[in-house]
Amino acid sequence: MTPRLFVDVDPRPLHLPTTRLAGADLYKLHRQIARFGSSIDGMPPPEVYRGKDGEFVIYNGVTRATRAAKALPGRLITVEIVDDLPYAVGHLPTIGSKLP
Known about the structure:
Strands 1-4-2-3 form a four-stranded mixed sheet. It starts with a strand and ends in a 16-residue tail after the last strand. The model has no long low-confidence stretch (mean pLDDT 94). The chain contains two helices and four strands. The longest helix has 11 residues, at 26-36. Helices cover 21% and strands 22% of the residues. By secondary structure, it is α+β, with helices and mostly antiparallel strands. A hairpin with a 5-residue loop joins strand 2 (47-50) and strand 3 (56-60). The chain is globular and about 40 Å long.
């Protein structure tokens, strides 16, 4: 396991995990938008894995990253790289391709 790193990225090209291929849970997304609006101040960083191809796949925080991508297009968010994967993840859909 590699040490955890924090990097700033655009949330739109982050890949969705295989358990959330449809994107964020719309109920949770609307609830977060109602509660936090477009603010990402104090938002815990989504956790991501880095695939063998250098692409990031979200491990935890699909709804948070989707809210940031929808409310603040083009703004970078901080993500935490949890570990590197031994396989590519670039074939998975991205947040940007599933924005409601």
